[in-house]
Every structure is written in structure tokens, then in C-alpha cells.
């Protein structure tokens, strides 16, 4: 699996992701950078701000985590300081992909049998070419399987390791305790998952950002030299390779993993499932929150992590997580390890809950939405946490790399097929101006694709 991904699927996904990202940047004209005031108004123009906040936290829970820490440490070790520049460039391209998939997910979502919103990539894959009936089912099954590896086994391994480091107890015991906690939440409090992630994620993020700012203030005299070093080394081959590799390891809790291809969920089709829970908002308004996720995850958190590593002068060597702990020990001393462990634990638990939500949401897309199947899946998912705490997660890393690569290729294919719809939706909310010569019909004063029925959520709310 590792060889297949490294030499075939990995390069294919990398090229496809960049190509599709640049394509959407051109089609959408990067309006979120050119029209910030209008974009902020669209993001805040909702009556139910709480549901939007919970949806964003649920989506961030799947991508923010210890991988943001170890991914940057790995990038600096492999590619040097210039890797930071290329991580930021990659993130700016990925914003267009994230925006497109969230917009399409919001535009095609439907009310399920229980009254909750259902949709995401399996729904907007429908009708995407001759494989429009098969792709949704295949993608849903792949995501359900990937959730067990990425959200359960890998996160269980990271959380158990963090608890073991802080409490000095066996990782097996920690994994078993976390399994019971997750099983209770998943079986008896499934509707509380968005609320729980909206508590865990801000707590871990604020704590970690506070630690980074404290280090940067303490070593502020070294900050100009660190920024100059990033710019100076940005265009070396070593920096380009390390930067892209580090960026692709930023999703979830990729503790100590230096292989595989992962991104901060831009392109793999998982984050839109979280955004579906937002109420009383427009597709483009919620899509802009997807742009915010990428910027916060990579541009803010990862850049601050990299600057902390550079200003302290700690040599970039050894295991990535240990390297970051040594960086913070240079300022916080012996208190650094428990503080980093607490961040890892909160991030890992939030990621576990988010991916459980993704997996169960896609059961219906695969035609397996029955109560018995759902319960069995959640029990299997919780068991993966115990497995992660009791054994190394090397196999889970390889399986996750392979599954996410296939999911990303399928999702990017669907996105390119529906690109016109993304453009017309953006124009309908006033972010773009389209010409009828490009095949759009401005019926009822709003540009839409010729022959495409208007969706009731397409139009921005006037009140």
C-alpha cells in the first residue's frame, strides 16, 4: 500500500490538487481576497450563528490537530525554513478547492428521514458524468473505512500517547479508557458531537496559540532573522519538496508520520459533511467559512509553529513531536510536556468525534443507514481507539494514505464536472459578474447554468 501510494497515487493527487485549485482560482478570480468586506458580511449574515460556529468547529476538528505541529516540524527537518513559504502558497491554492466543495455540498443537501441535513460529496457526485450513479456509493464506502483508520486508530494512538506522557501510565490503559469515553458519546450522545467539538477545539486552539505567542514574544529579537531566513530559502529545491510534503501531512493527528499524502481536507470531500449542519445560511456564505478553515489551519497555526521553531534556535532533528516539545521547553521548561500533551489530547478527541460523524453520515450515502448497521459501525469505530492505544499505527497510516488518495481523485473529478455550478452560485450572491456569452442564462435576474434547476438555497437571503 505504501509503495502504491508513494509512486503512483501520491504524485497523481498532488498534481491533480494543484491543477484543480489553480483552475478554481482562475474561474472564481480569488474574490475572497479581492472583496474581503463583502465576504465577511456574507459569513456573518445568518440568524443562527451558533449552528454555523458548531459546523465550522466540527470541520476544523477533522483537520486541526497534532498533525499541525508534527507536520511543520517534519517540513522544517526535511525542507528547511523555506518550507514554510511553500506551505502557505499551497494553502492559498487549496482555499479555492475547499470553497468549491462546501458550496456544492450546501447547494445539494437534503433533509433526511430524521430531519437532519444529509448530503456532501456523495450527493454532488450524482450526475457527474457516466459514473454518476456508482461514484457516490464507492466514495461513501471508502470514507466509512477511512474514518476507522484516520479518526479512530491513528487518533487513539496519539491520544493514548499524550495521556501516557502526562500521567505516566500505560498507553494500553489510556486507550481502553478513551474507548469507553468515545463509545458513550457515539452511542448515547451522537447529536452532541458538534457541541462537544465546539468546546474542545477552541480550548485546544487557544491554549496552543497562547503558547506560540508567548514563545514569539520572549524571542522577539530573533523574529526578523527567522522571517528573512524563510524568504531566503523559499526557492531552493529542498524547501519546495519539504514544504509540500509538510503541508500534505497537516490533517488530523499524523504523529511522527513522515510518509503519505494528506492535506487539510481541501479536496478529499470530508469537510463538507460538517458544514451541512449549519442552518439558515447560503452556500457561498458557508463556503467562505471553508476558506477560513484552510487559512486558520495552515497560514496561522502552522506559520506560528514554524516561527517558534526558528526563533528558539533548537536544531531541527529527531522525532517531530519530541522536537516541538524541546522548542517549547526552551521557554516553559518542564511544564512544556504536559501542556503540549493536553493540546494533543483535545485535538485528537475532537478529530475522533469529527471523523465518527463523517463515517456515520456516509453510511446513508452507501445505502446502509439502518439503525443496526449504524450501531455496529460505531462499536467497530470505538474499538479502533483501543487498537490504536495498544499497538503502533503504521498499518493505519498506510491505509489512510491510500484511501484518502483515491477519495481525493474521485472528489476532484466531481468538482471539475460541477465547476460551472460553483461559478453561477457565486455570481448569484454578488461575488462575480458573468457574461451571457459564456453559457449562462440570467433568468429572473440571477445567472444560473442553462438547464440547471434553481435550488431553494441558492439565493442569498434578503432579510
Description of the structure:
- The protein has one domain: Amino acid/polyamine transporter I.
- The N and C termini lie far apart (53 Å).
- The protein is an all-alpha fold.
- The protein is globular.
- Strand 1 and strand 2 form a beta hairpin.
- The chain has 19 helices and 4 strands.
- Helix 1 crosses helix 6, helix 3 crosses helix 14 and helix 6 packs antiparallel against helix 14.
- The strands form 2 sheets. Strands 1-2 form a two-stranded antiparallel sheet. Strands 3-4 form a two-stranded antiparallel sheet.
- Helices cover 71% and strands 2% of the residues.
For the structure shown, list the relevant keywords.
Amino acid/polyamine transporter I; 2% strand; two-stranded antiparallel sheet; 463 residues; mainly alpha
